[in-house]
Amino acid sequence: MVDFTLWDILRNLLLAARWTIVLSLVAFVGGGAVGLVLLVVRLGRNRIAESLIAGYVQVFQGTPLLMQLFLLYFGIALFGIDTSPWVAACLALTLYTSAYLTEIWRGCVDAVPRGQWEASASLALSFGQQLSHVVLPQALKIAVPPTVGFLVQVVKGTALASVIGFVELTKAGGMIANVTYEPLLVYGCVALIYFTICFPISLYAGVLERKLHVGQR
Amino acid sequence: MSASADPSATNAVLVAPHTEIGAPVVRITALRKSFGELEVLKGIDLDVMRGEVVAVIGKSGSGKSTLLRCINGLEVFQQGSLVVDGKPLLHESALAMRELRQRVGMIFQSFNLFPHLSVGRNVMLAPRLVKKRKAEENEARARQLLERVGLAEKFDAMPDQLSGGQQQRVAIARALAMDPAVMLCDEITSALDPELVGEVLRVVESLAEEGMTLLMVTHEMGFARKVADRVIFMHQGRVHESGTPEAIFGAPQTPELKQFLSSLHD
């Protein structure tokens, strides 16, 4: 039987953690982009588009991410498209993230006083100009803490990609635990790595929140 | 008092509107507006001549603020027509709305300055985006207008560093920067501490003297009496009585106006 040192375990886990980080970034950038588009469409006050997006948000917030991953992974295959766990995981996490972010951001836009819309409209600004020069810059300030906070959820959510066979931190942990017969040690290390990624983000969100309060007085 | 002054001749700060002197800048015909079942404007006919200063008074809920907000399209009305400086108000056309809004300046009760922009940028934003005014010309004009409202030294200040009265004066400069043909003032001193009301009213008064067309909803009866050419008393969604300040305040005809005026003295 082969002996595994702690360094062997950690090294392999850290290599797999790269994929957790990449997957988180893809989900966050992709989800942020989709979420922003959905937000702008939603603010356009088209009734049909608005209810469609509201439905989209409800579906992704009302079902477990695990089911979304399964459904996308096996669902895409059903259409005869050859899909990899990587593509399915990226897609599922992007959609999941976009649904949450568009909802968070809509709340932030709603928090900008109505008078700002009215004043900018009275100055003959177009809808796009109102958004980009008056409303979004103010909403952005409000949005930073909850958005960064949600990033932590996304990082932890990537662990679920292991169920469709994508080898990221959790999946690698399971595999290493199986060969080393040291599940407690291995999963302890896995948890520690997640914490090392997430804790600075949480900390940063807290700092941003305090900064914002100082700004508002 | 102000109808005789030609703004283009007397003061370079204000730009002359398209409308001829003595012709109506705002023409409201049979305007009706409801919020759901509740009809708040029940057929308003009102012409505001170029250079005229019109004060709108009345109880809260009489529809005076709604009327003002209809003129620049912040409220949608169901019937009637509205023309500002030759441009008809068409709610369906975003382009027509923006054309019209370039001719209408609006000052709000709650100032509504953009808190993330400096005072100078507040004034320069709309001319830059909408009128595509050149940067240097835009800045020179913004500085000129801020000087005009007595805030030349606040160009780089942020709105939250200013008092309410100063913020409202910035809002006036911001509206003037778009060279409007008419200014709408919606209870612009109601959110101010009493000691700050005077500085804002003095700016409005000087605009009136320079020939700016003004339509203001106000609770400052002394100011309306002093500055307005015509006072309109609104009651239950209609223009109930209108006339010169002397007639309205000195010799009210209807019992509703008499009651409203006497209620102010209690």
Automatic annotation (TrEMBL), chain A:
What's one Pfam family here? Answer: BPD_transp_1
Subcellular location, record wording: Cell inner membrane; Cell membrane
Which keywords describe this protein according to UniProt?
Cell membrane, Membrane, Transmembrane, Transmembrane helix, Transport
User: Where would you say this protein principally sits, based on its record?
Assistant: membrane
What GO biological process terms does the UniProt entry carry, in alphabetical order?
amino acid transport
Keyword Transport: yes or no? yes
Q: For this UniProt entry, which segments traverse the membrane? A: 20-41, 53-76, 184-207
Protein name, entry field? Amino acid ABC transporter permease
UniProtKB/TrEMBL annotation, chain B:
Query: Mind listing the UniProt keywords for this protein, alphabetically?
Result: Amino-acid transport, ATP-binding, Cell membrane, Membrane, Nucleotide-binding, Transport
Which superkingdom does the taxonomy of this entry point to? Bacteria
CDD domains referenced in this protein's UniProt entry, alphabetically: ABC_HisP_GlnQ (cd03262)
InterPro entries membership? AAA+_ATPase, ABC_ATPase_HisP-typ, ABC_transporter-like_ATP-bd, ABC_transporter-like_CS, MetN_ABC_transporter-like, P-loop_NTPase
Q: Which GO terms describe its molecular function?
A: ABC-type amino acid transporter activity; ATP binding; ATP hydrolysis activity
Tell me which Pfam families the record gives. Answer: ABC_tran (PF00005)
Recorded GO CC terms: plasma membrane
- Which locations, inside or outside the cell, does it occupy? Cell membrane
What is the topology of this protein in the membrane according to its UniProt annotation?
A: Peripheral membrane protein
Question: Where this protein primarily resides, as one coarse class?
Answer: membrane
The answer to whether the entry has keyword Methyltransferase is: no
**Gene3D superfamilies listed in its UniProt record:** P-loop containing nucleotide triphosphate hydrolases (3.40.50.300)
Q: Cite the ABC transporter domain residue spans from the record.
A: 26-261
What's this protein's family per the entry? Belongs to the ABC transporter superfamily.
Name this protein carries in UniProt? Amino acid ABC transporter ATP-binding protein
